[in-house]
Design brief:
With about 270 residues, the chain is of the alpha/beta class. Helix content is about 40%, strand content about 15%. It has helices at about 15-25, 30-40, 75, 85-90, 105, 115-125, 145, 150-155, 175-180, 200-205, 210-220, 240-245, 255-265, and strands at about 5-10, 40-50, 65-70, 95-100, 130, 165, 185-190, 225-230.
Length: about 270
């Protein structure tokens, strides 16, 4: 089975990122991922870009990767006046397949006017907007801005924009499922639902309650065309996380969730 990782990060040579990668059996480098992809059936990865926002962001990615140009807190706190022009220049590239927003870290709702120029660009270039939803990494982020219900406002106001609810709004699963079920222009990736090293069988036994709730809300949405596999690498071991997500998704739907949906939503042409 071919796999597209619809949500990962490549942080560059940062000691904390290397430690995180090593804890789950990886190395923090794009070259390591290229080799790992070839060995484990990963056909492509979509990098969610972080700061900085320049014309050179993600320009040196290997061909196994596309990217979403990111507007994280490092960008939004010092937003250059020509930021929409920089984002548009990226969207004109075939390797840039969307925009990534980080509202919980930016302390702004995704329906705020500051994001309107980027929704116009997403509609113009027919490329999706991926939005961090749910739990955040670090106490300085604010959950009310990352709550999946905020995505309902943006999706309803911008029916011509395809939104991706990153992390399925975890742990706000009921609200996330309601937003997905209601809005035809919202899909979700299943990245970052777990972190760190684990073994799938042992984890599912230990977390049987959570697994039951998660599966119930996935079934509630009722449409596997809306879900994409993603990892939030380097947060997890890629192969083990894929094995775990397989326990969430009916085997008859694996090709959709692990490959077809990301290929279609991000227009990868694979």
């Amino acid at each position: 089975m071919k796999i597209i990782d619809a949500h990962l990060h490549i942080f560059g040579a940062r000691p904390w990122a290397e430690r995180m990668a090593q804890q789950v059996g990886h190395r923090n480098s794009a070259q390591h991922l290229v080799q790992y992809y070839a060995q484990h059936g990963f056909a492509h990865g979509i990098v969610m870009a972080n700061a900085p926002l320049t014309e050179h962001t993600c320009r040196e990615l290997p061909p196994q990767f596309s990217y979403c140009i990111g507007l994280d807190s490092g960008v939004m706190q010092n937003l250059p006046p020509n930021a929409p022009e920089i984002v548009e220049a990226h969207l004109q590239k075939s390797t840039c397949v969307g925009i990534k927003l980080y509202p919980g870290y930016n302390h702004s709702y995704i329906y705020d006017e500051i994001y309107e120029p980027y929704y116009e660009l997403a509609a113009k270039y027919h490329k999706p907007v991926a939005v961090h939803t749910g739990a955040t990494n670090g106490s300085r982020a604010k959950l009310r801005y990352a709550h999946p219900l905020t995505l309902d406002d943006a999706a309803a106001d911008h029916p011509d924009v395809q939104f991706v609810m990153c992390h399925f709004g975890n742990p706000f699963l009921a609200e996330a499922a309601a937003v997905l079920e209601k809005n035809p222009n919202v899909s979700a990736d299943l990245s970052g639902l777990l972190g760190g090293a684990f073994e799938t069988g042992a984890l599912n036994r230990a977390q049987a309650g959570y697994m039951g709730i998660l599966k119930a809300w996935l079934r509630y949405v009722g449409d596997w065309n809306k879900f994409m596999f993603g990892t939030d690498w380097p947060l997890v071991n890629l192969a083990e996380y894929a094995k775990w997500v397989q326990t969430l998704v009916p085997e008859s739907e694996w090709e959709k969730v692990f490959f077809d949906n990301a290929n279609r939503i991000y227009q990868l042409g694979l």
